[in-house]
Every structure is written in structure tokens, then in C-alpha cells.
Amino acid sequence: MNLLSVEHVCKNFANHTALDDVSLTIPEGSIYGLLGPNGAGKTTLLRIINRITAPDSGRIIFDGHEITADDTYRIGYMPEERGLYKKMKVGEQAIFFARLKGMSHKDATVKLKEWFDKFDIGSWWNKNVSELSKGMAQKVQFIVTILHEPKLLIFDEPFSGFDPINANLLKSEILSLRDKGTTIIFSTHNMSSVEEICDHITLINKSQNILSGNIDEIRHKHGTNIFEADYHGDEQGMRKALEGRCEILDSKVSPTGINTIKIHIASDDEVRSVIAAANESVQLRSFRELIPSMNDIFIRAVNGTL
Q1: Residue 76 backbone phi and psi in degrees, to 5
Q2: Burial class (CB in 10 A: 0-12, 13-18, 19+), 38
Q3: Are 226 and 263 in contact (CB under 8 A)?
Q4: Backbone phi, psi, residue 274, to 5°
Q5: What is the C-alpha to C-alpha distance for residues 225 and 247, in angstroms, rounded to an integer?
Q6: Are the beta carbons of 138 and 130 closer than 8 angstroms?
Q7: 82 band by pLDDT with thresholds 50, 70 and 90
Q8: Fold observed for domain 224-290
């Protein structure tokens, strides 16, 4: 079941087209990566989903109906531009945001203190926001984004400015929220993060959706039939066995006796015969397809070579 559908959304600003007939569907209980280069239209789409701005045409379907103002209480949004008021106390600021999402002062205070302790920032409750480091400010904003337990969470570059330890802390919390049934939209330029936590992706480039789907299916679909084999035996014998059957891209001889060869096989139908020929010549230890990374797919898609 899909929690959110974007249907033929268009948005123009003066002489600039931000979104051009963009459609996508986000399955319930998944982490959905929204990818694209700077200026592609990602943030505009997130703002439309949050009803911060309206589309020129098209519509957003949320939980079975066209999205309304009341639905924003069921959405948590952490924008890339952090919006904390520097002159307020940290705890006071957090309670203010929680109240905006409909929480009572009492419930907000109890839950906030639990999260502050969990993120090791409890001692900052009565300090000014201006005293927070960028990482601490992001922790506060993350907490106030998820505090009211929304059905949909939207994170725009959530790991920006975080050290690896705190980035892993956030990743763990995001995965935990997904496992509890929350649907998450995750906008980022960090392809390694996409591969680690996203279930599905959409790639927007030049205001259009150019690629959507399950991340594992996309990686396998856009593989280039490149394989790598580890084997024990004579390198020249291996090369002779593969001659005329595939293209040898690289070959490495190891002093340990376990050599490696990288090959390109023209079609899937020829994979079995290549393996059989290799196995008759040497002792195969492993044979694996080299699936392209999301970073490779991203670059190829944006450059139009996918």
C-alpha cells in the first residue's frame, strides 16, 4: 500500500521550471530516497508535500485522500536549512515546536527530556540555542521533527555537518522508525547513505523524474554484465579458456595462489558457458557479478548514459 502519491506535479518560478510533470509513489513503511543534483527540484517537491507552497498543477495524495492542511500534523519535516531561534533557550525552543504539532506542554516536556538524554544533550536544556554547535542544533531539530510520532517523516540532507558517530546514531534511529511502521522520505546527495538505508528511490534531474524503483532492482537492472572471479591455477590457462567467450578487463596474480580476473560477458545467456569453461581450466573459488553502486547509476543517469 502506498502512503503518498505525487501525481503529475508541475511548478514554475518566474522563468524557471522547478518541477515538470513529476509523478511518484511512496510505499507505506519504507525509506524512500529522493535524489538529484543541486537545482533539480527536490526541495521544491518536499515543500509542496508539506503544503509550504502549492503546485501549479497536479496533486498530492496522502493516506488515500488529497492532502489537506490538517495532514501537516501527521508529517514531520526537517529541512536542510536549520530553523532554530538563537535567542531562545534550547528546551523552550523544543517545546515551542512540539506545541505547534499539537502536543501538550506536559507530554512534550516528558518526551523531549527522554530524547535529549538519549542523544546526550540533556545538559543543554536551559542554555541558549546560540551556544549549540551545528551538530547539536541538528540533533535538536531531528528530535522535534520526530517527537509527535508522525505517519510521514521528511529529512532533507539530515547528515550534513555530522561526524561519523552522530551520523550513524541518526541512521540507526531512522531505521528504527521505519521498522516501527513510519514512512520516511530521505533527500540527499550522499549515495553511500542511500545504499545503506533506502528501500526505494526517485532520481530527479532538470525538473523531471528520470528514474524510480526499488533500489536493489535498479542496481541489478542497470548492471553492465561485469563479473569477477577468484581462482586457483595458471593465469595463462585461465585466459586461454576464456578467449573468444568474453572480454578480459583486468587480471591479478596473487602470491597467495588465489588469483583474480575481471571480465565482461556480452549477454546473460553466455554466463553459464563462461563459468563452465573457466572451471575446466582452473579451480574456481568464487564468481560474482559486480553490481554498480548508486553513485555510478546516479552519474550515468544525470549524464544521459544510463
Answers
A1: -115, 130
A2: exposed
A3: yes
A4: -65, -45
A5: 11
A6: no
A7: low
A8: Alpha-Beta Plaits (3.30.70)
Three-state DSSP state, 166: helix
Q: What is the pLDDT of residues 96-110, one digit of tens each?
A: 999 998 899 999 999
As a whole number of angstroms, the distance between CA 193 and CA 189 comes to: 9
Name the 3-class secondary structure at 146: helix
Looking at residue 89, the DSSP 8-state letter turns out to be B
Residues facing residue 183 across a β-bridge: 152
What pTM did the predictor assign?
A: 0.83
Q: Which residues contact 152 (CB under 8 A, 6 or more apart)?
A: 3, 4, 62, 74, 75, 76, 182, 183, 184, 185
Query: CA 220, CA 265: separation in Å to the nearest integer?
Result: 15
Q: Where are the beta strands (DSSP E) in 64-143?
A: 65-66, 75-78
Residues 106, 128: Cα–Cα separation, whole Å: 21
- What is the DSSP secondary structure assignment for residue 70, as one 8-state letter? G
Pairing of strands 226-232, 31-35: unpaired
d(CA 209, CA 109): 41
What confidence tier does 83 reach under pLDDT thresholds 50, 70, 90?
Answer: confident
- What average pLDDT does the segment 221-240 reach? 92
**CATH 3.30.70.1150 domain range(s) in the chain:** 224-290
Phi and psi at residue 120, to the nearest 5°:
60, 40
Residue 163 exposed, middle or buried by CB count within 10 Å (0-12, 13-18, 19+): exposed
In the chain, CATH 3.40.50.300 sits at 2-220
Residue 155 — very low, low, confident or very high, per pLDDT cuts 50/70/90?
very high
The CATH number of the structural domain formed by 2-220 is: 3.40.50.300
Smallest Cα–Cα separation from 116: which of 132, 99, 100, 101?
Answer: 132
| Of residues 134, 124, 55, 49, the one with CA closest to residue 92 | 124
Q: What is the pLDDT of residue 94?
A: 94
- Name the grid cell of 270: 553466455
